[in-house]
């Protein structure tokens, strides 16, 4: 079936989504057989899901596309010009963040026309993105190891951090007040208001 390239789960753990090849599969926790398989173009790189599972989004490498399904019905796509590497969605499904080979993007999915709120070029490919559950904070990691954090309403980053050799993972706390970052040297924890790591966990 292929290699899984992204996973997401609902807040109650009852539904799991995974991207693999040109498919996004949906599994219920009751068994190993997918209850739905959504087909996209080749190269699904990342998937994300709202807390209740009603909104599901996938990013594609080959077709340079973002796709949104609501209740498993495709309702929106966005076509770019470069590979999308990562995607995230707020808990209520209202805001979508994505990263490609040039930009970080933020979309408001609650608008009828799904307007892009902003895009930002950090000077290097955006490998990872994350959005706080309430949609108020956005984080992105670039291929050259830079970390950026935004407030939703402002396209210029609130702060950046440039001391990591690489960044391998991003995760916000439930209230969005803290950001955990995986680096080759260990884990860092930032208060969302400061680019000075509040905690360091070397490995």
Describe this structure in words.
- This protein is 0% helix and 54% strand.
- With 203 residues, the chain is an all-beta fold.
- Strands 1-2-3-4 form a four-stranded antiparallel sheet, with no helix packed on it. A four-stranded antiparallel sheet has the order 5-6-7-8, with no helix packed on it.
- The radius of gyration is 16 Å and the shape is globular.
- 36% of the residues are buried.
Helix content, binned percent: under 10%
Average pLDDT, rounded to a whole number, is: 94
What is the succession of H and E elements?
EEEEEEEEEEEEEEEEEEEE
Total DSSP helices: 0
Rg for CA atoms = 16 Å
Sheet with most strands:
4 strands, antiparallel
In whole angstroms, the N-to-C terminal distance is 34 Å
Strand residue percentage = over 45%
Derived from helix and strand composition plus strand pairing, the structural class reads mainly beta
Number of E-state strands: 20
Q: In terms of per-residue confidence, which ranges show pLDDT below 50 for 5 or more consecutive residues?
A: none
Oligomer: single chain
Strand order of the largest sheet: 1-2-3-4
Shape: globular
């Amino acid at each position: 079936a292929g290699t899984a390239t992204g996973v997401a789960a609902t807040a109650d753990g009852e539904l799991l989504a995974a991207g693999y090849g040109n498919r996004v599969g949906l599994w219920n926790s009751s068994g190993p057989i997918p209850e739905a398989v959504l087909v996209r173009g080749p190269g699904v790189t990342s998937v994300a899901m709202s807390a209740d599972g009603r909104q599901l989004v996938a990013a594609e490498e080959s077709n340079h596309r973002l796709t949104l399904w609501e209740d498993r019905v495709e309702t929106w796509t966005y076509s770019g010009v470069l590979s999308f590497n990562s995607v995230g969605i707020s808990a209520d499904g209202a805001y979508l963040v994505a990263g490609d080979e040039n930009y970080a993007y933020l979309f408001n999915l609650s608008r009828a026309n799904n307007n892009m709120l902003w895009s930002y070029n950090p000077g290097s490919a955006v490998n990872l993105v994350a959005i706080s559950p309430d949609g108020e904070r956005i984080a992105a990691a670039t291929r050259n190891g830079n970390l950026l954090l935004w407030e939703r309403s402002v396209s210029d980053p609130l702060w950046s951090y440039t001391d990591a050799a690489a960044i391998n993972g991003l995760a916000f706390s439930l209230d969005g007040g803290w950001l955990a970052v995986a680096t080759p040297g260990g884990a860092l924890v930032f208060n969302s208001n400061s680019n000075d790591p509040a905690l360091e966990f070397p490995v």
